[in-house]
Amino acid sequence: MLDVLVGALVYSNLLALLAIGLSLMLLTCRVSNFAHGDVVTTGLYAAYTASVLLRVSPYACIPFALLAGGLVSLLSFLLVFDPLRRAGGGPVTLMVASMAVGIIIRYSLHAYADVMQRTLGVYTRQFVLSDFELQLAGLRVPGVLPLSSLTAAVLLVSLYVLLYRTRLGVAMRAAIENPQLAESLGIDVKRVFAIGWFLSGALAGAAGVFLPFRVISDPDVGWSMLLPAFASVVVGGIGSLAGSVAGAYVVGFSELLLSYLLATLGVSTAYRPLISFAAIVATLLLRPKGLSSLWSR
Amino acid sequence: MRGVEVLSFLVSTAVLYSVYLILASSMEIEYGELGLPSFAKAAFFALGAFAVGALTVRLGALLTGVALEGEFKLVSYRYATLISASVARNPALGLALFAVPLLVALPLAVLMGLAASYPALRLREDHLAIALIAFSESVRVVARNYEPLVGGTFGAGVVDFLAWLRSPWKELALLAVALAMGFGAWLVEYRISTSPLGRVLRAVRDDEVAAQAYGMDVARLRAQILALGSAMAAVAGVLYAFYAGTVNPDDFTVSRTFIVVLMVVVGGRGNPFGPPVGAAVYLLLDRGITLVKHYIPVPFDVNYLSYILMGLLLILLLLKRPGGIVPERPLLTLRRALPQRGSAAAPQQRGAEGGGPAGT
Amino acid sequence: MLLEVRGLHAGYGKIKVLSGVSLTVGEREVLAVVGPNGSGKSTLLKAIFGLCTVYSGSVLFKGVDITGLPPHKRSLMGLGYLPQVGNTFEGLTVRENLLLALHDGSKLEEGIGKVAELMPELGGLLDRRVRTLSGGERQMVALAMVLLRNPSLVMFDEPTAALAPRVARRVIERIAALRDELGVSVILVEQNARAALEASDRALLLVSGQPRFFGGSSELLGERDLVKTYLGL
After folding, report:
1. Is there an interface between A and C (3+ Cβ pairs < 8 A)?
2. What is the pLDDT of residue B112?
3. pLDDT digits (tens, 9 = 90+) for C130-146
4. Which residues of A touch B36 (CB under 8 A)?
5. Which residue has the higher pLDDT, C168 or C196?
6. C103-117 pLDDT, tens per residue?
7. Which one of B52, B259, B330, C103 is least enclosed by Cβ atoms within 10 Å?
8. How confident is the model at residue B72 (pLDDT cuts 50, 70, 90)?
9. Are B260 and B136 in contact (CB under 8 A)?
10. Closest approach of chain B CAs to the CA of A296, in angstroms?
11. Chain C residues with a Cβ under 8 Å from any Cβ in chain A
């Protein structure tokens, strides 16, 4: 049971990092970004590569993951999503474009994984990384638990401070709400959105660092986190940044606890993805504003 | 390559093309004409294939009086071969094994399509897309884990319904069936696109509120079109299952849906010639890379390149030529037989004026 | 001349709205723009600010040809524009809105002090989200945002549209008083023609995108036929 709770918390931390990025991209460009899972994988391989080359733990390579994720996301904004947004592309067109971007990233990573395996001599597919253990409040927990929680907390709080306590943040929220008015006040909307996209990608990249400590990883692993991340955004209330974080913890814990419960009843845990699906459909049809309806006017 | 190999390659490409043509035609009607992002396409495609995978061996066993011993997932391939041998002696059996899954899958697909149209009413288009993708993945997850259906990750063997024909007649027969289905599907799409119904669909796509103000029953249209599109996809699934000889749930991921969308966007939305062009482009890229892969020295699997190239192609098109290779243009609706041909007094009817914004 | 508009033809994309509009605005002057609905009054302001398509003609501000200059650069030169809607960020607090309006973010407290002098009611609303304010209060925030940018000329697009008639008259008078209090010039587009004409120095009568009168406001009020036909007075 402890393992289930540990897993749930780690999983939720990662989902929160993804979900808030998804929300930000949805708010700025009205795109449900299906490439975001692959940004996670980018961070994963960036940290892994750095850790092999520098002979340090991947945990120490989080900055590389942040940078790699941020750059990939920024590039996708500058080359694909911003031009499409300004050309008036509708939400589905943007979504289709995001799938294409995702495929490009994912298969580039597949190619990279092959090259990396050959040149660096490490397993780059179907691999896990061994974790260290800690004594925390009298319990033995894997290192990924406190580290992922700490990282998620630091990153999320930093984002909050940026958005609500700095002029850049005010400008970003203003540009999201009314890009035209922002432009006429002299705010460079494109620059502000670009920063938002870089940050979203950085957060996703950071999440990628922790994955191989919990699940078998390969270039497709980030993609498999995407649907639960979308579920988090939907459950939290589409358009609410705080909601997507809350939604991540709700979805993360529900998924793991429910599948644990069902397992004791003899249902295979492989049916876990169905929980995300149910969460998405139920929220959209029954209470579209999701959790954010609890605190919004 | 020897002659037989060449024939085999060509036939398999043509059959695959037909499968994709059916899928692309169905997507064109739903997404290109009506603007409905039918992103559960892989699930309906799977439905047809799963019907074949689940039924041919079991039904074949029933009809030939053979008892199935052992777990389905472990023995289906063995029995598939066994029953194919029976088909070799009994063409009627083969035809029955082709027809029954088809007749089972079609009404199921229609029902599922109708069910999927209900959320289509209440949700914004990209939310609907996400919900449908989630649904599609769920179907795959269930099929992957519920082993009695199609053997879970082991997959299911498919009986060769044309075992009673010798090569090359067998390949040619499959080719004929495939081409007939593909062309039939495309014809349906063409007829819809160039008919008044097509104009109605595009009107709804371009401005739903205005369409409703003019009295169009959007809800019913969506239900009907999704039911049709789903049925078409299921037919494609049946064909595909027989072509592949095996059914595996992991073959029906969201990537499949994405490829179909890619074909429609690349070929051109809102244009009946879009699907054939789009399917051709995709297959050319895919097969092309397979053929030249020995000549491309890269330190990784060349197949990855084909995916990357396709992604790049789609993005380039969306940025530079969003209408696709064959963009939407004013179409002539079907002309009824006019008493005076070529007379200035008999005006032609024009279809939708240009295209709606290609990006919506 | 603070602002000069010469032979302006403008519209939205393929839809032409204004045909050959010319006007001037001097220092410390209030110009009222009046006319029937749909005559292009709002479009005129947008064209001057650079938010719609200009087919031909020119706009000169402080002697500089600004036709083709992006809106925020015109704003930096001292041209202020207060549209009817979408003029504040509703999800942000009043303080945050004012922060964005300032050219130099570090002068926020100073700016707030200045604004509080003119509009003391704003003082208590600083940390409220604009969404929670009343229509009149929102207009005040929008006006504060424009004033914080030290404009020489402020253009108002139907500021009284959502207000009760009694309040409307007072608002128009206050806007005109900006000329005296702050030394700015004002262009006031108004549906409420009588109040606008009585409070302004000069007037432009626009009918179907074309200028029908440009001169002193009291003069226009005296033109019985025009006033009766186009302004319903």
Report:
1. yes
2. 92
3. 999 887 788 888 888 88
4. none
5. C196
6. 776 777 887 887 777
7. B330
8. confident
9. no
10. 21
11. 49, 51, 71-72, 75-76, 81, 86-92, 96, 99-101, 103, 105, 131-132, 145
CB A277 within 8 A of CB B40: no
Q: H-helix or E-strand containing A14?
A: helix A2-29
Six-digit token pair at A256? 């793991």
C89 to chain A, closest Cα gap in Å: 6
Assign B348 a pLDDT band (cuts: 50, 70, 90).
Answer: very low
Residue B117: pLDDT band by 50, 70, 90 thresholds? Answer: confident
Q: What is the pLDDT of residue B330?
A: 59
Question: Which residues of chain A make contact with B134, given a CB cutoff of 8 A?
Answer: 227, 230-231, 276-277, 280-281
pTM, full prediction: 0.85
Contacts of A287 (CB under 8 A, 6+ apart): A293
- Domain with B246, as residue range(s), is 3-251
Which stretches of chain B are assigned E, i.e. beta strand?
156-157, 246-247
With respect to residue B166, please indicate whether it lies within any of the assigned structural domains: yes
Assign B246 to helix, strand or coil.
Answer: strand
Domain of residue C111 covers 88-150
Q: Give the residue-averaged pLDDT of A179-191.
A: 86
Q: Beta partners for C157?
A: C189
pLDDT band for position B351 (50/70/90)?
A: very low
On whether the CB atoms of residues A13 and A229 are closer than 8 A, the answer is: no
Residue A195 lies in a domain: yes
Please indicate, yes or no, if residue C71 is contained in any of the structural domains: no
Chain-chain contact of A227 with B133 (C-beta, under 8 angstroms): yes
**A248 to chain B, minimum CA–CA distance in Å?**
17
Report the number of distinct structural domains present in chain A: 1
Which residues on neighbouring strands pair with residue C155, listed in sequence order?
C81, C187
Contact yes or no for A90 and B141 at CB 8 A: no
- Chain B residue with Cα closest to A26: B126
pLDDT for the residue B67 = 84
Q: Indicate if the pLDDT at residue B349 is higher than 70.
A: no
A56 touches B at CB < 8 Å: no
- Residue A297, pLDDT above cutoff 70: no
Q: How far is A181 from chain C (nearest CA, A)?
A: 7
- Supply the range of the domain harboring residue A121: 2-221
Q: Is residue B269 part of a domain?
A: no
- Following DSSP, what letter does each residue of A184-234 receive, concatenated? HTT--HHHHHHHHHHHHHHHHHHHHHHGGGTS-B-TTHHHHTHHHHHHHHH
Average of per-residue pLDDT across A148-152: 94
Q: Which one of A27, A168, A170, A172 would you mutate to disrupt binding with C, by most C Cβ within 10 Å of its Cβ?
A: A170
- Report the SS3 class of residue B350: strand
Domain assignment present for residue A259? The answer is: no
* Mean pLDDT along residues C175-193: 88
- The answer as to whether C214 is a domain residue is no
What is the reported pLDDT for A260?
Answer: 87
Per-residue pLDDT at B339 exceeds 70: no
Report yes or no on B342 lying in a domain: no
Is B334 part of any domain?
Answer: no
Total domains in the fold of chain C: 1
Contact B314 A93 (CB under 8 A): no
Q: What is the DSSP letter of B28?
A: I
Cross-chain CB nearest to A95 (options B122, B129, B262)? B129
> Is residue C143 domain-resident?
yes
Report residue B358's pLDDT band, with 50, 70 and 90 as the boundaries: very low
Q: Is residue C13 part of a domain?
A: no
- The count of structural domains within chain B is 1
